[in-house]
Amino acid sequence: MTRHQPEGQSTRRxxxxxxxxxxxxxxxxxxxxxxxxxxxxxxxxxxxxRQDQGEQQVVLRRKVTMPHEAIRPLTWAERKQLHQPQEAQxxxxxxxxxxxxxxxxxxxxVGQMRASRPxxxxxxxxxxxxxxxxxxxxxxxxxxxxxxxxxxxxxxxAGVSFALTSSTFHIQQLTINGTQNPGLLSTIQHxxxxxxxxxxxxxxxxTERLELLxxxxxxxxxxxxxxxVIVNVRERVPVLLWQSGKSTFGISQDGIVIAQVGQxxxxxxxxxxxxxxxxxxxxxxxxxxxxxxxxAEQVFQRVPGIQGVSPFTLQYVNHIEVNGRTVPANQxxxxxxxxxxxxxxLAYLGDERNSNTLATRLQELQQILSIAREKHLNLATxxxxxxxxxxxxxxx
Length: 396
Description:
By secondary structure, this protein is an alpha+beta fold. Among the domains are: 11-63, no CATH class; 169-235, Ubiquitin-like (UB roll), CATH 3.10.20; 238-394, Rossmann fold (3-Layer(aba) Sandwich). It is built from seven helices and 20 strands. The protein has a nine-stranded mixed beta sheet. The protein has a four-stranded antiparallel beta sheet with strand order 1-4-3-2, covered by helices on one side. The longest helix has 33 residues, at 133-165. It is elongated. Mean pLDDT is 77; it is low at 1-55.
């Protein structure tokens, strides 16, 4: 029989010498016990066995066929699943045993390590094991670092000692800017700046000491290596003179009593307030309120424009005489400003704490003076302290 094989398929023919027992087992069929002249027994992979009578020959044929259905390609989801990373394997746990020395294999006194194959002790014998080269290098590195640290420490100590003891870093040059006041210059020069070590110099403490001086409004210090200090000073400027007893002082705009007139410059032409208080003494460093200073300045600016007042002096009192009695000069404040005219009358103005404004009080003063001129009155006092109720008295 001739078999036609499709294209792409092949047929292989195998011939074997089968034994009698194998042949008999292949040709027996059923329970009849009879032998057929020809019998085909199917086996795996499409093989068939043909046995001819009288011949102990087995012919094996393997038939290779192509599948009838086309192989379906993988989808994108299946391909993506194939390329997904596998789950991380759990960390393998190792048994911990006593740590051993790498040279001898003997257990160390402390520590643990992962169990591994023991080191070979071949050739060790009783001879001493030389130290490892790495350990010798480590020892040399530690000594080198220690020596380097000690050298740097010695250099630092020598540098600090030189900076603190050498005269090169002692303050020798002192420059003062912003003042020509001889008293202030002398105070700064003798405050203890020169001769100090520039690294130990406490500029903050010196600044605070200088700012306590009444004549100093502000001060700043600049330290320049190796031995120089620059002091920048801003002085207080007097805007008003204040006479107390036999001494006259300059008053700054913020109410600080600066110093006596002889120690100040630029005081010519300033108005003077005569302090008639008996229980108060003015001295440098004392403080008036800035409102009192502004009030006095306004009086000196506006009163000269009132007819019949100039020339006058401005006094500051804490008690006045009323009907032969001594009464407080101002119930609203500590004292009262008093205009003393050359004509001999006194006008009590009060101070900045009174409810009536200075402009209103001066307007009332001008009206009373006009009435006195018309009626030829000889005025003794004019009381303007109580606002809308000005009063005046006449000389007897």
